[in-house]
Design a protein that fits this description.
6 strands; mainly beta; 47% strand; 0% helix; 6-stranded antiparallel β-sheet; 85 residues
Length: 85
């Protein structure tokens, strides 16, 4: 499969945390906000790239097209979440 500009090239399993900023690791420390893949339906509490804390209810399985910096442990029960850059 060919690379398409704008298509994510890094995926990291998310550990839900109210304080930890999402990061793809030492290789790309300044990657910025991530979009998400949700593997298990549920509520998703995030901090957006703009700094807003938002609770999305009943998020379905699939790609979540909002730029986020945190996936909060508080109020999040969606599972198998991956951050994509």
């Amino acid at each position: 499969m060919a690379y398409i500009k704008g298509q994510p090239s890094i995926a990291v399993a998310v550990t839900k945390s109210d304080t930890t900023i999402l990061s793809p690791g030492a290789l790309y420390p300044d990657a910025g906000a991530a979009t998400l893949y949700i593997g298990g339906t549920g509520n998703l509490s995030v901090v957006t790239e703009g700094g807003q804390t938002v609770l999305f209810r009943n998020v379905p399985v699939g790609f979540f097209p909002v730029s986020v910096t945190k996936v909060r442990a508080t109020d999040t029960n969606a599972t198998n979440i991956f951050a994509l850059w």
